[in-house]
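We treat protein structure as text, and this decision shapes the records that our systems exchange. Below, we set out a record of this kind in full and without editing:

***
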Amino acid sequence: MKHRKQYKPAPQTHPSAVLAVPSYHRILVKHGLIEKTLSNPDAYRVFLKVGADPEVQKLRYKVAHGNKMKHVPALYLATAMALQGMTKQELESLKSRIEEKRA
């Protein structure tokens, strides 16, 4: 008599454990605008300042109205795409403008 192989599914990680940090926090850390240890409320304040920056608004408008995507429903996604399209120099100048606003 042959025994059937028993397949164990891979252990699943709970999505909330993987995504414990809000998306706006991950976006800002990825682009080097904040430190990983910054608290969520402070990161959100920085994210709002980044979103209010005129350069980011221009790029976000281009993303939202470009040929690739007709409608970007989430503000954080449009901001992330705008930041992704920026060069290192533009990101550094954005970082300095945000730090000026903090002081």
The mean pLDDT is 80. The radius of gyration is 19 Å.
